[in-house]
Design brief:
By secondary structure, the protein is mainly alpha-helical. It has one domain. Helix content is 83%, strand content 3%. The protein has a two-stranded antiparallel sheet with strand order 1-2. The longest helix has 33 residues.
Length: 132
C-alpha cells in the first residue's frame, strides 16, 4: 500500500471521469459513433463495456487515501499499452476509419498517454512522500 498523494488521486479521478464518459458514449451510442467515425460498432461497444469496469476501478483507486501500489502500477502500464495499441490499430489495417475516426483515435491515445504520465508522476510523489 502507498499513501496516495493528492496529485495521484486527482490524476486517477480525471482518468476515471474521462473513461466513464467514453464508456457511456461507446456503450450506448456505439451505432452512432460507428457511423460517425467509420469504426466497427462491435469494437466501440465492447470498448465501452470494458471502460465501465475500468472507470469503476480507477475511480475506486482515486477515492483511497492508501492505495495498493500494484493496482496503481497496473493502471499506468495499462494506459501506456492502450496508447500504443490505439496507434497500432490505425497502422494495422484492421480498421478503416475516416478522418474523424483517425482524429478521435489519436486524440484519445494522446489523452490516455497523458494520464499514464500524470499517474506515474503521482505514483513517484506518493513513494517519495512515504520515504520522507
Amino acid at each position: 500500500m502507498i499513501n496516495a498523494s493528492i496529485f495521484l488521486r486527482r490524476a486517477l479521478l480525471a482518468d476515471a471521469i474521462f473513461s466513464g464518459v467514453a464508456a457511456l458514449g461507446f456503450t450506448f451510442g456505439a451505432s452512432a459513433f460507428a457511423a460517425l467515425f467509420n469504426l466497427p460498432e462491435a469494437l466501440l461497444s465492447e470498448t465501452g463495456l470494458f471502460l465501465i469496469a475500468y472507470a469503476a476501478l480507477v475511480g475506486w483507486l482515486a477515492s483511497r487515501a492508501a492505495a495498493p501500489k500494484p493496482l496503481v502500477l497496473l493502471v499506468v502500464i495499462g494506459n501506456v499499452a492502450w496508447t500504443i495499441g490505439s496507434i497500432a490499430l490505425l497502422f494495422s489495417g484492421a480498421v478503416s476509419p475516416n478522418l474523424s475516426g483517425e482524429l478521435m483515435v489519436v486524440a484519445q491515445a494522446i489523452a490516455t498517454g497523458v494520464f499514464a504520465e500524470l499517474q506515474y508522476v503521482g505514483l513517484r510523489k506518493s513513494e517519495n512522500a512515504a520515504m520522507a
